[in-house]
Amino acid sequence: MNFKLSEEHEMIRKMVREFAEKEVAPTASERDEEERFDREIFDKMAELGLAGIPWPEEYGGIGSDYLAYAIAVEELSRVCASTGVTLSAHTSLASWPIYKFGTEAQKKKYLVPLAQGKKIGAYGLTEPNSGSDAGGMRTTARKDGNSYVLNGSKIFITNGGVADIYIVFALTDPEKKHKGTSAFIIEKDFPGFKVGKKEKKLGIRSSPTTEIIFEDCRVPAENLLGEEGQGFKIAMMTLDGGRNGIAAQAVGIAQGAFDLALNYAKERVQFGKPIIANQGISFKLADMATKIEASRLLTYQAAWLESQGLPYGKASAMAKLFAGDTAMEVTTEAVQIFGGYGYTKEYPVERYMRDAKITQIYEGTQEIQRLVISRML
Amino acid sequence: MNLEFSEEQKMLQKMVRDFANSKVAPFVERMEKGEFPRPLLKEMGSLGLMGIPIPARFGGAAMDFTSYIIALHELSKISATLSVILSVHTSVGTFPILHFGTEKQKETYIPKLARGEYLGAFCLTEPEAGSDASALKTQAVKEGSSYILTGNKIFITNGGEADVYIVFAKTAPTLGKKGITAFIVEKGTPGLTFGKDEKKMGLHGSRTVEVLFDHVRVPEENRLGEEGEGYKIALSGLDGGRIGIAAQALGIAERALEKATEYAKMRKQFGRPIIENQGIAFKLADMATMVEASKLLVYRAADLKSKGLNCGMESSMAKLFASQTARKVAIEAVQIFGGYGYSKEYEVERLFRDAKITEIYEGTSEIQRIVIGKHLID
Predict the structure, then answer these.
(1) Tens digits of per-residue pLDDT, A327-371?
(2) Short-list B209, B230, B240, B222, CA closest to B86
(3) Torsion over CA of B126, B127, B133 and B137, rounded to 10 degrees?
(4) What is the pLDDT, as a whole number, of residue A14?
(5) How many domains does chain B contain in total?
(6) Is the pTM of this model over 0.90?
(7) What's the angle, vertex CA B267, arms to CA B77 and CA B343, rounded to 5?
(8) Domains and CATH numbers, chain A
(9) pLDDT category, A66, cuts 50, 70, 90?
(10) Chain A closest CA to B331's CA: distance in Å?
């Protein structure tokens, strides 16, 4: 057993941290206020090889592993949760299913540009009537000659509107429901595909979240991902890994907020001493630090299991559950430690608190994580 | 023991609730965009809501303190922004003059404040004096029959909008708490200016402003209470202020619980309303229980204050518990709404943002614990 990260992993952490502090942090607050996605940041990430961390070089990746990827998402999220989820959705939700289920032709055509960061990926599962109940979806895909024609809409799509490639799930056989769902690789220029409403959100505001709409959208048959009827399984397996990306995001958010709060508590003097000299504050920080450590270990464990080819479903659900709750608690306490200043937009902690909340909701609510875990006990 | 409101209190509750639902609710979007709700305050003035606990001889509604808390509670369900404006105006903007003012000061300011013709504010906090309020540095130097005030205050609710500012400054800097004196400063006094307008996580539409004193000349007759009495005056306002904020937190929590429950009954997944899952029902049960407890703590403190009894510990407990409840319940309400809870199209994300400040201002939760702790020791 060894809890020490390899040199390669430490190097990736260092590289991403430096990048995050130099290229991402300075504009994080203003991008949040303006709800502005910055494509340049993504392009710079791509230049560093960050868009395809776990994929072999033959597919345009850097041939590293899921642990390195988790570390990258964590470090990005430490300064900007929106940037963290941009990468997470792109890698776990859009690239992974092509890597796992794609034909060689699909991998060459789609995985390579995704891994190189020349294209951005997204994942369309959720609909107005099917959130937690993903199997309740209504978007259909009717076979027509050597195409499928898609009709329906998806909501809450991360990277919506900026993505070039969308992994979309639709019913090829509505009567079979789960077993009649199929996955498709959609290009943004396919006729009948359009991007709808952009959500105004509480947090992760510089990550675009949109509706996507299919109006007789014609998709070539070779863009079916996996087999007909395999879609639901692909969706669920994709989420298994995706939730660990979110766990990593949550760890980063928590760590970032904690670092800010710790610093402030050491500097802020009231009643003749730094506020950290009060047990009321130092004990709070101790609890926060402990929960972050535990969250990180759970996240790295799930990533390591995935890298080893071992089952990781329960581990990733636990990581997402615990890290998400930790992020919410830690950021809330961080705002508290900053006092009145914590509530103003001049200090970044209030953004962290707003950002943290989504980690308890997307890619499977905490309630769903508990369902997943309890079924595996 | 009697846990029912009086007929008069029920009537006020209904009046405020109707006002909140019909007039305040449509204005919320404007406040979210940053607009200060002048029109609403004007209407509240004509409804007598700007001077609820103020004696009739000064033009107030002459109702008891509990009635005032009922009004804050009801307003907060619809807009925490509006309720904090009122809470500061009454609890710490008007009461200090009512309790410590000379007859002349009371006659000059109270009727206008009670009618809502004047808006009040309370200037205590400074960059180096938050929880450690007595570390304030604003100075008040006696010069003939005036005091010259120099310094700056931050995070002042109603700053820039208020007509009357209760300001705390040191007349004797070496005496610590005993060197603080209170003053009534009118807007427009030369040297009184307003700086930074804070952009905040929530409570949009409530102005939170830096107030600057550049050799502001304040006549002696505007000194409130005696020299050196300032700290006592500041703290006296805080007791009632705490109960007001507790009521604000209670309103936010109740609204969040109501919305979440409504949604959980309506939203179907897996073939049934999500409330049929214990995961959701149990959550709502816990939320509802915390809200009940908060309500009882708030009204117990209000009742004691109404009767002129000591309520230092009770008001701190109410503020501590109700504010934590508001934050927890609002966070869970967003959770129950799922992805929709994170969207600005639904109200709960505003409740999430508004709730947090109730754990911080008018004495952080940490300060409340210190206060309660001291009562336990005594």
Answers:
(1) 999 999 999 999 999 999 999 999 999 999 999 999 999 999 999
(2) B240
(3) -70
(4) 98
(5) 3
(6) yes
(7) 55
(8) 7-120 (1.10.540.10), 122-230 (2.40.110.10), 233-375 (1.20.140.10)
(9) very high
(10) 8
Q: Are B208 and B251 within one domain?
A: no
Task: For residue B129, give the 3-state DSSP assignment.
Answer: strand
Please report, to the nearest 10 degrees, the dihedral formed by the alpha carbons of residues A276, A279, A284, A289 taken in order: 70
Could A366 and B277 be called an inter-chain contact, meaning their C-beta atoms sit closer than 8 Å? no
Residues B103 and B141 in one domain: no
The label of the residue with tokens 């369900």 reads: B77
Look at phi and psi of residue A250 and say left if phi exceeds 0, alpha if psi is from -120 to 50, else beta: alpha
pLDDT tens-place string over residues B305-318: 999 999 999 999 99
Is B124 in the same domain as B148?
Answer: yes
The residue range of the domain holding B185 is: 120-228
* Residues near A68 by beta carbon (within 8 Å), at least 6 away in sequence: A8, A9, A12, A53, A54
Same domain, B124 and B190: yes
Q: Which residue from A133, A270, A346 is facing B270, i.e. has the nearest CB?
A: A133
Residues B22, B135, single domain; the answer is no
Residue B238 has pLDDT above 90, yes or no: no
Strand A121-124 and strand A147-158: pairing? unpaired
- My answer on whether B275 and B358 are in the same domain is yes
Q: Give the closest of B128, B201, B280 to A343, CB-based.
A: B201
